[in-house]
Amino acid sequence: MENPFKQINQPLKEVPKELKSKVMHDIAMAKLLMELAELFSYNIGHIIDSVTANRTKD
To answer: Which domain holds residue 37?
Structure first.
C-alpha cells in the first residue's frame, strides 16, 4: 500500500472544469440552505445572552 503522505509535497493537479463547477454549485446550495435555516430559526445564543443580561440588570 502506497503512503499517501508522500504526495503532500507534490504540485497540485488541475481539476476538471465540470467537477469544479459541480462542487461550487453544491457549496452554493449548502450556503443558501444554511442562510435560509438561520433566517427562519431562533438564534439561541443571542436569546440566552439577552435573558441573562436582563436578569443581572434587575
So the answer is: 16-41
**In-domain check, residue 3:** no
Alpha helices, DSSP H, located in the chain: 17-39, 44-57
- Smallest Cα–Cα separation from 17: which of 27, 7, 9, 25? 25
Task: Note the pLDDT tens digit of each residue in 2-58.
Answer: 898 888 888 888 999 999 999 999 999 999 999 998 887 777 778 888 888 887 665
Task: Provide the domain count of the chain.
Answer: 1
Classify residue 50: in a domain, yes or no. Answer: no
Q: Which three cell numbers stand for residue 53?
A: 443580561
Its pTM stands at: 0.55
* CB hemisphere CA count around 14 (13 angstroms): 3
